[in-house]
Every structure is written in structure tokens, then in C-alpha cells.
Design the sequence.
């Protein structure tokens, strides 16, 4: 044997050996039961094509992860960002994004193959066949929002916790509007240590079945801030801008507040004046029955503003008259005329005050209402 030799058959080399290496040629593919046989390059390349290279590639078949194996992804700093466990646990250290269009389903939870909850691409979350949202702290349920029956969605607080609805403005300052708590269902109704609900910042009611706040109830019942007069009247402008004949029941007119040399106010009492459940008097259908009084009583006009009654005008009457009858001589029906004394000692408006057209005012006319 020389330093280099080969094994040949019919002009084909099968083994070549020299000082540094040995080469094998024309090697047959190993069969399944020949696990310890040498493999040729073609056989190895073919098998390698069926594997995913460590440097990356395209995965075209399923991957079975069993036992304690898991799939991990890492960032450029070698930090694990995602781990998938054989148990099905999906552990991500970053946000998970699902991009779909319209109301397509992005995330779904099933029980025994039946959908129970999903999230749509348009942001809606849906619960099916019961289920809901529970808020817990250290394993203890605080409240649950769920479907109680086929037609009732219920929000329940547990273990003496509170349900509270608040709102904040653009400066992040907030207020509480609804506060609900049951500390003891057998305790006192309306008590903090029993069960109670509190409503805050309730607006004044407008319609018959609107909720009323404490201030409105007490004010209406006369418990607080009783009104300075029984009736309210709507201001319709000055004598030079409104014809008395056009006035409706419960409306009045007067001069410009800048000139108090003469004042004429007219109130119409057509059977049912504003804010009056019964007529002050009946229209007896006779002409020009006048009642004169000189000097007359005090006239005052008040505005209802922010739960306070603000004085607008005080004046001494020089002359006043009550007119009955529907004739044209009475400017369209029953009314009261009143003339004020001249001079600031007898008629006074509050500083910077003016009457607003179509605004309602309380009017106190001493001796009449």
C-alpha cells in the first residue's frame, strides 16, 4: 500500500485514500432498516430540504410540540418576547394585534365547541348564552355585568362594594353622579350600613315623569325660597314696540327702563292666567267697570335665577285701574293698567338691570296679587 491508493471496479472508483483524507464514491441510498449505513450526499440533501433551517425558511407543514417543549421568539437583545406552550398557553411580552375589516371576528372563546364570547374588528365585544364581565381584586369579586335573563342586563356589586358612575371634564376634574352600595341587605333602607343609592347633580325636571331634585321639590313646595309673588308673567316688550291688543293671557308690556317718567304695565286675566289653577275673576261681560286708587300700592318685579329670586324693579303706583269686559275700549279684554310716580325716589331699577323679551318674571302687585 502506497501513501495513495484507490478501489476501482470496471473503471469506477469507490474508495480513494491519501495521506490526509478518504473519499467514498457511488454510495447507494440507505434503506429504512439500514440506520447505521453511510448515506450519500443526494440522500442527505433531500432529507435536509424537508427540515426548517436554523437560519430561517418557509414552514409548510404542521409542528407538533409535546412534553416540556415550547416555541419561543426573541428580540435583537435576546429577550424572550413570545412563548407558546404545549398546554395552549400563549404568553406575549408585547401587544397582540389582529387586523381584520368591518365587523369580522378577531378573537373568540368557545366552550365545548360553542362560541361564548368574541371581539369584532369594529371594536364590539359580544357575549353568547350568558356570561359577562367580572371585576376582581385578590380573587374576590367586586361586581359583575351580565345577562340575568333573556331580557335583563344586570350589574351587581358584591361584598359591600360600591357601583359608582362618574364623569370628567377636559381638565380631568370629575364628579360622581350615581353611587350604589349594599353593606347589609337586612339593614336600614337608604343607610350607608344597610343599602342605599345616591343620585347627584340631578337637573330640574321638565316633563311630568322626570326625576326631581331636592331643591326643586322644596322650592315648589315653598319649603325654601318661596316665590315673592303668586303668579308669573311673560314680558313682551315696550309700549312703542307692542300693541296691547295683541297680548295674550299672562303677558305684560311696559316702557323702556331708561325712562321712568311714565310706566304702564298690562296684565291680562283671561279665565286662566299663567301659573294659576283657577281664574282670578270671571269676565262678567259688562263695559268699563273701573276701580281707581290714588296713590296706589307698591309694584315689584322679580327674576328667578340660579335658585335665587333677584329683584328687578320697585315702584310706587300713582294710579291703577282694573278693567273688565271684552270691548275694544279695554284694549282687548280684562287687564290692569298702572302708572308710576315720576322720580327715582318713587321708582327704582336695580343696577344694570333690563327686562328680557319673552322671559317670565314674578310680579307682586300689592293689594291684588
Sequence:
Amino acid at each position: 500500500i502506497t501513501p495513495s491508493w484507490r478501489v476501482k471496479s470496471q473503471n469506477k472508483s469507490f474508495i480513494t485514500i491519501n495521506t490526509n483524507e478518504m473519499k467514498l464514491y457511488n454510495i447507494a441510498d440507505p434503506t429504512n432498516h439500514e440506520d447505521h449505513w453511510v448515506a450519500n450526499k443526494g440522500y442527505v440533501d433531500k432529507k435536509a430540504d424537508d427540515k426548517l433551517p436554523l437560519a430561517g425558511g418557509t414552514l409548510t407543514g404542521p409542528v407538533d410540540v409535546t412534553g416540556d417543549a415550547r416555541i419561543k421568539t426573541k428580540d435583537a437583545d435576546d429577550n424572550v418576547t413570545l412563548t407558546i406552550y404545549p398546554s395552549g398557553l400563549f404568553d406575549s411580552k408585547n401587544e397582540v394585534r389582529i387586523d381584520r375589516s368591518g365587523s369580522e371576528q378577531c378573537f373568540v372563546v368557545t366552550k365545548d365547541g360553542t362560541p361564548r364570547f368574541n371581539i369584532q374588528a369594529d371594536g364590539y365585544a359580544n357575549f353568547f348564552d350568558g356570561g359577562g364581565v367580572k371585576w376582581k381584586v385578590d380573587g374576590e369579586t367586586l361586581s359583575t355585568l351580565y345577562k340575568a335573563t333573556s331580557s335583563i342586563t344586570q350589574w351587581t356589586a358584591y361584598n359591600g362594594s360600591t357601583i359608582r358612575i362618574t364623569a370628567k371634564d377636559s381638565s380631568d376634574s370629575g364628579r360622581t353622579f350615581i353611587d350604589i352600595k349594599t353593606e347589609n341587605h337586612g339593614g336600614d333602607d337608604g343607610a350607608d350600613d344597610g343599602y342605599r343609592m345616591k343620585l347627584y347633580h340631578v337637573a330640574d325636571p321638565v316633563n311630568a315623569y322626570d326625576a326631581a331634585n331636592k331643591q326643586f321639590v322644596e322650592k315648589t313646595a315653598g319649603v325654601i325660597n318661596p316665590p315673592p309673588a303668586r303668579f308669573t308673567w311673560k314680558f313682551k316688550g315696550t309700549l312703542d314696540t307692542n300693541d296691547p291688543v295683541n297680548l295674550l293671557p299672562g303677558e305684560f308690556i311696559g316702557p323702556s327702563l331708561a325712562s321712568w317718567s311714565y310706566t304702564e304695565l298690562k296684565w291680562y286675566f283671561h279665565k286662566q292666567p299663567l301659573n294659576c289653577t283657577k281664574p282670578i275673576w270671571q269676565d262678567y261681560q259688562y263695559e268699563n267697570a273701573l276701580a281707581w286708587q290714588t296713590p296706589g300700592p307698591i309694584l315689584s318685579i322679580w327674576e328667578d335665577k340660579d335658585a335665587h329670586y333677584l329683584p328687578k324693579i320697585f315702584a310706587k303706583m300713582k294710579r291703577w285701574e282694573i278693567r273688565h269686559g271684552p270691548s275694544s275700549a279695554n284694549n282687548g279684554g280684562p287687564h290692569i293698567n298702572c302708572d308710576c310716580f315720576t322720580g327715582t325716589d318713587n321708582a327704582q331699577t336695580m343696577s344694570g338691570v333690563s327686562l328680557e323679551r319673552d322671559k317670565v318674571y314674578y310680579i307682586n302687585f300689592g293689594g291684588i296679587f
Summary: Confidence is low (pLDDT under 50) at residues 270-290. The helical segments are 41-49, 214-221.
